[in-house]
Amino acid sequence: MGRSPCCEQAHTNKGAWTKEEDQRLLEYIRIHGEGCWRSLPKAAGLLRCGKSCRLRWINYLRPDVKRGNFTEEEDQLIIKLHSLLGNKWSLIAARLPGRTDNEIKNYWNTHIKRKLVSNGIDPQTHRPLNQAATDANTVPNTPTTELDFRNVPRVSNNKFTAKPSLDFKSNEFRIKAKAESLEEGNSSSSGMTTDEEQQQQQQQQQHKDEYPGDGQELNLDLSIGISSSGKKKKKKNSTTGESKPQLDYRNFHFPGQASICLCCQLGFQTSEICRNCQNTNWFNRYC
DNA sequence: AATCGGACCAACCGCCCTACC
DNA sequence: TGGTAGGGCGGTTGGTCCGAT
């Protein structure tokens, strides 16, 4: 059952890395470069699993790893990206130079989550907590399907709507997300009571506090290509056994906006040349 | 000074995807 | 076309630190 271990578990060290191990790994990668993690430990004289070496290198030893506290700007960017991408830590990390997915994940779980909760925001849905609770009670418990829109990362709160659609002809799953200007006074036409209006205004104020850069119109037209490969499997939750739909983010593209990266679209880059656009990861493919 | 509990974070685990044969 | 190795990802665990009592 299952895969065989990636290495001989009986002869590998576990736990914290020693300085000597770090030194060996650094020295080996300095000479031979990254890659072939499975064979690396033996070649480098390390009693470690290849995966462990990779993690150590990526999360700690890599020279471009930025250490230290997160700035307020980084905080806001993480929150924003999480509202768009969900727990896709590697994707979020790709937008924060020098930060690793593990670091961001830890920071989210220990700091930002609590901060959002204290501000009355549901960290998973990015909507006001009371509303998230209401939604949780009203959403029918339908079986999970290949394209379960409930599991698509939500695009922020009630003023930030996501409209998923499936185009079978083009084999594309499209999310149209539009952030309406919070400055527009449009609640009066909704037929809400005064109390509801006040509540919504409070929520909007919370949203402003949470997303200071959200005053402007933001129009995302994200397309996610569905892999045509028959080999693609649905990810199973290890505890519940529930399947989750897999979105192929590498096929994300931004119709009509192909020359701007997501970061720039969101207005987080103020310099003429976005630093992130210089990266070579897939997310910047269209930059 | 000792103990306890919460916060933090490095590291591990299990699963999945993709390239390759 | 199917099997497998290698690499990557998200979730979880466990050790350490530090402040409160």
If you had to describe this structure to a student in words, what would you say it looks like?
With 287 residues, this protein is an alpha+beta fold. The chain has two domains: 13-61, Homeodomain-like (Arc Repressor Mutant, subunit A); 72-184 and 195-228 and 235-284, no CATH class. Helix content is 35%, strand content 12%. It is built from nine helices and six strands, in the order αααααααββαββββα. The chain has helices at residues 19-32, 40-44, 50-61, 72-85, 89-94, 101-118, 129-138, 194-210, 262-265; strands at 160-167, 172-179, 218-225, 235-236, 243-244, 248-253. Strands 1-2-3-6 form a four-stranded antiparallel beta sheet, with no helix packed on it. It has a two-stranded antiparallel ribbon with strand order 4-5. The two termini are 44 Å apart. The protein binds a DNA duplex (21 and 21 nucleotides) through residues 2-3, 6, 14-17, 35-38, 49-52, 54-56, 58-60, 87-90, 101-103, 105-107, 109-111, 227, 229, 231-236, 238-239, 246.
Summarize the structure.
The chain is an alpha+beta fold and 287 residues long.
Helicity, as a percent range: 25-40%
Q: What gyration radius follows from the Cα positions, in whole Å?
A: 22 Å
Shape: elongated
Total DSSP E strands? 6
Q: Roughly what fraction of the amino acids lie in strands?
A: 5-15%
Put simply, the count of helices is 9
Biggest pleated-sheet summary: 4 strands, antiparallel
Q: What is the N-to-C succession of helices and strands?
A: HHHHHHHEEHEEEEH
> Average pLDDT value?
57
Could you give the distance between the termini? 44 Å
Strand order of the largest sheet: 1-2-3-6
Number of domains: 2
Uncertain runs: 1-5, 138-197, 210-287
What structural class do the secondary elements suggest?
alpha+beta
